[in-house]
Specification:
Number of helices: 16
Largest sheet: 4 strands, antiparallel
Strand order of the largest sheet: 4-5-3-6
Distance between the termini: 54 Å
Strand content: 5-15%
Structural class: alpha+beta
Length: 320
């Protein structure tokens, strides 16, 4: 397998750094970090090029805060300069390589993919009713915090031979335990960490109907017994190769019994509903009618499911 090189010089070029800074500031021009950066913009851009060229870059100290939706978790945040610009500079060059390495079956944080693409492709798979009678649904125990740095670095070295780039990626990887949620690079590292697993599922196990969004995994089959065999193989692979474990609340069930709760929708062979927790939040937002952007976002969700009766309940007399 041919490994790629000659990447670091592209990443640290003044032209790429300048273009990456413009990307990093989109929608954030009023933030303190951007305003402070702009006071000496040209100098800061030049200095970032220099510290990357001399390999004296070091990840700044993280700030952390908690979010509670859709579930409680700790989010990590880095300063705009130099870190967030540096991450964009890396991904400006590396994004196409990462996406080429991914299979078509992962959907999280990938351009042209996402929640609605995952749902749409799952709906298409369910048209093959004979081979989608049963579902295996699972996710991984504390996936982001449990990503093993040594294994991630080894996997990256299977694809990348540029030692300077590997130095920079190693520095960022080792800046926090696991993969810090909130880092721009973390979402790509997370997908990449499971990419060889994805290929194993598709090419070795020959699984036709497989869907992964971050660490949420859905596998469909004609047989409950087949899915139990697949589950045992997955447990062994993840533990042996990636030092990961699946949660004990995995499920193997007939699709007709309750539908597949995945990426915010509940998918049946004949129709698709919105997840109950999302419907509850929608009801609260529609009742208050204060935040038009949030309302529009929820209305977008309704376009991808069978929501005629739901909308009659939420908006019995008018439309927003």
């Amino acid at each position: 397998m041919k490994r790629i090189g000659n990447l670091y010089v592209q990443i640290i070029s003044p032209e790429n750094i300048e273009a990456s800074e413009l990307k990093a500031r989109r929608g954030k021009s009023s933030q303190y970090g951007v305003i402070r950066f702009d006071k000496n913009k040209d100098y800061n851009l030049q200095m970032l090029h220099e510290i990357l060229k001399l390999k004296t870059y070091k990840t700044s100290i993280y700030k952390t805060f908690k979010v509670y939706e859709p579930k409680e978790r700790i989010v990590f945040k880095l300063p705009y300069y130099p870190d967030r610009i540096t991450h964009h500079a890396i991904m400006n060059i590396m994004e196409s390589h990462f996406t080429n390495w991914f299979t078509n079956d992962s959907y999280s944080s990938i351009k042209g993919k996402g929640i609605h693409k995952a749902s749409s492709n799952l709906k298409l798979a369910l048209q093959d009713k004979e081979n989608t009678t049963f579902c295996l649904k699972l996710d991984i125990v504390k996936f982001y915090p449990n990503v093993n740095h040594d294994i991630l670095k080894q996997l990256l070295r299977k694809k990348i031979k540029d030692q300077d780039l590997l130095w920079l990626l190693d520095e960022i990887i080792d800046s926090a335990d696991g993969l810090p949620i909130g880092n721009y690079l973390s979402q790509y590292f997370a997908n990449f960490y499971l990419t060889y697993f994805d290929h194993w599922i598709k090419e070795e196990l020959q699984i036709k109907h497989y869907f992964r969004y971050a660490d949420d995994i859905v596998i469909l089959s004609y047989s409950k017994e087949h899915l139990h065999q697949v589950l045992a193989q997955i447990k062994h692979y993840l533990n042996t190769n990636l030092k990961l474990e699946i949660k004990s609340n995995y499920q193997i069930f007939p699709v007709e019994a309750r539908g597949i709760d995945f990426v915010g929708y509940v998918h049946f062979h004949t129709h698709t509903l919105i997840r109950k927790s999302i419907k509850k939040r929608m009801a609260k937002v529609f009742k208050k009618r204060k935040n038009k952007a949030t309302i529009a976002g929820y209305l977008g969700w309704t376009k991808h499911a069978n929501t005629k009766n739901l909308m009659k309940k939420l908006l019995p007399n008018d439309s927003i």
